[in-house]
Structure formats: structure tokens, C-alpha cells
Amino acid sequence: MIDPRVKSLCEEVGLEAIEGTAYPRLGQTRAVNTIKALIDNFGEEHTRLVLMTLAETENNKALVDRECLWMASDMVMKFKEEIERDASFWLETWDLMPLGYLQSVSHELRGLVKQRDALAGLVYRELRKRYGQLEMET
Q1: Closest CA to 94 of 82, 106, 105
Q2: Phi and psi (nearest 5°) for 58?
Q3: Residue 90 burial by CB count (10 A; 0-12/13-18/19+): exposed, middle or buried?
Q4: Residue 2 and residue 8: Cα distance in Å, rounded?
Q5: Of the four, 6, 7, 61, 96, which is 20 to 30 A from 24 by CA?
Q6: Phi, psi (5° rounding) for residue 25?
Q7: Which pLDDT tens digit goes with each residue over 9-51?
Q8: Closest among 27, 71, 29, 36 to 50, alpha carbons compared
Q9: What are phi and psi of 28, to 5 degrees?
Q10: How wide is the angle at C-alpha 123 spanned by C-alphas 98 and 119, nearest 5°?
Q11: Exposure pattern of 94-125 as b/e (b: 16+ CB <10 Å)?
Q12: pTM score, two decimals?
């Protein structure tokens, strides 16, 4: 059974929480245990922002899986001050990011490094470029 807090947060951001045995379609996630862990460890507000980051940005709905959720949680913690200053810029940045491609690239490192860490490094670089470290654009 899916934790009601998980179901509620998912519904709030337009995601459907499904059982882990089902194959997720666009707008669905079966990473319900990960979402529950995020709620238990960091609270509902943090988890809501993580879900919004992935679900409410145009190009990222299909990527709401365990590694992507943990990576987005890491980035929300790292960029907390920037998000508080301008949440719309944060979501706009994720709209522009080729997250599916970055996740695909991170899979090339499977077996060598943890997927969460590989994806986090790629996404962190993209976020740093948008948040003012222009020397990283080359």
C-alpha cells in the first residue's frame, strides 16, 4: 500500500503514484518508497519542492525515478538559497536542462560509480552554468 502522504504530494504536483510492480508511463512514478524516505528524512516541504522540480518542469516528467529523485533532493539542498531568492528561475532552469540526455549519459558509468552521484555531477554543472559561473560554459 502506498503511503497516503506520498499519494497526496504526488497528486498535488500532477503525478500518479503507482505500485512498484507496474511500468510507469508519463506522469507516473513507482518510486514511492524513495518519496516516503524523502518525507521521513527531510519533511514534506522539501519533498514537495523536489517533486515540483521534476514534475512541473516541461521536459522531466518521465524521469521521476529513485536516482533522479535523490539527485534532485541533493540539488534542492545545495541550491536552497537560490531557490528561496527566485523559485521561478529554478523551475525555468530545469525546463531548459536536457535531463533525459544527462540521465542517459550517467548510465554509461553504471557499474563504476553510483547513478545518483554521476547524474548529480552532470546536473550540478548545468545548474552552475545558469547560476553565474560562466567560465564553465565551454
Answers
A1: 82
A2: -55, -45
A3: buried
A4: 10
A5: 96
A6: -100, 175
A7: 999 998 999 887 778 877 889 999 999 999 999 999 999 999 9
A8: 71
A9: -120, 155
A10: 100
A11: beebebeebbeebeeeeeeeebbebbbebbee
A12: 0.88
Residues 85-118 have pLDDT tens digits of 999 999 999 988 888 888 888 888 889 999 999 9
CA distances from 47 to 1, 32, 98 (A): 19, 12, 22
First to last CA, the chain: 48
Alpha-carbon separation of residue 37 from 45, 64, 120 (angstroms) = 13, 14, 18
Residue that has been written with the C-alpha cell 522540480 in this structure:
53
3-state SS, the chain, equals: CCCHHHHHHHHHCCCEECCCCCCCCCCEECCHHHHHHHHHHHCHHHHHHHHHHHHCCCCCHHHCCHHHHHHHHHHHHHCHHHHHHCHHHHHHHHHHCCHHHHHHHHHCCCCCCCHHHHHHHHHHHHHHHHCCCHHHHC
